[in-house]
Amino acid sequence: MKDVQNISDDRGIAIQNVGVSGVHLPFLIKTKTDSFQSVLATINLTVDLPKEYKGTHMSRFIEILSEWSQKPISSREMESILIDTLTKLDVEYAQMEIHFKYFIDKVAPISGLKSMLDVDCSFSAKLTKGKPLDFTLGVAVPFTSLCPCSKEISKYGAHNQRGLMKVKIKYTSGKFIWIEDLVALMEAQGSCPIYPLLKREDEKYVTEHAYENAKFVEDILRDLVLALRQQKFISWFEIQCENYESIHNHSAYAKHVEHVNN
């Protein structure tokens, strides 16, 4: 049968990214406890398309991804997938993004009751022929913040809110960080961590802990910058912090990007 995708195109426009997006497959993510957590991943896999080609072979993307379903996925495996993609589609560049929910064990601070916190995570990898893999880990962690200004001027209490900090990091060669450890590092920078399950004694603790640890969104971001700078394996990071304000109909927001010279 005629292969329309391989016929020439005379418009002279190369496309940087073409492929499939929103593919859903189960993958395994290795945990810090040396086991695996099964996740439902949303995947984007794209390649470059030279200007002389009309289209790419979409079915080959699904064939490649399906081979990895229900298998462990990390930066090493993503590099293998991208190498396979470069070869099978005969291209110079390939990019893959995986977005998934990862569950962290949480223990309530006083009652000791256990629950699980869902955390949005992502793996992003780019590979160009003849160059090393460019891998980025992304994690989004909820937190509690309490307003220092409200605490200072109010006779009773202070307003607080739930926030979300998003971190993307790149490693130095041969290094990595467990998702669990990165989440713990991030949580420590807010006024108080988030717990899915709390009894009354726990609620008293987190309320008072946040009150004694009042922080603006700028404070949280700066403390997170300092914490990430101490991690010798990180070569680059991007941070976004957003407080969903409880007394305003808008959010407080801060962002920082930095190359680390360790």
Topology:
Layout: E1 15-30, E2 36-49, H1 58-66, H2 75-89, E3 93-107, E4 114-128, E5 134-146, H3 148-153, E6 160-171, H4 179-187, E7 192-193, H5 200-211, H6 217-229, E8 234-244, E9 251-259
Antiparallel strand pairs: 1-2, 2-3, 3-4, 4-5, 5-6, 5-7, 6-8, 8-9
The helix/strand class is alpha+beta
Mean pLDDT across all amino acids: 92
Return the CATH class of the largest domain: Alpha Beta
Please state roughly what percent of the residues sit in beta strands, choosing from under 5%, 5-15%, 15-25%, 25-35%, 35-45% or over 45%: 35-45%
> What is the CATH third-level topology name of the largest domain?
Urate Oxidase
- Element-by-element helix/strand order: EEHHEEEHEHEHHEE
Give the domain tally.
Answer: 2
Report on this model:
The protein is an alpha+beta fold and 262 residues long. The protein has 2 domains: 1-132, Roll (Urate Oxidase); 139-262, Roll (Urate Oxidase), CATH 3.10.270. It is built from 6 helices and 9 strands; from the N terminus they run ββααβββαβαβααββ. Strands 1, 2, 3, 4, 5, 6, 7, 8 and 9 form a 9-stranded antiparallel β-sheet that branches. The longest helix has 15 residues, at 75-89. The radius of gyration is 22 Å and the shape is elongated. The model has no long low-confidence stretch (mean pLDDT 92).
What is this structure, in a nutshell?
The chain is of the alpha+beta class and 262 residues long. It has helices at residues 58-66, 75-89, 148-153, 179-187, 200-211, 217-229; strands spanning 15-30, 36-49, 93-107, 114-128, 134-146, 160-171, 192-193, 234-244, 251-259.
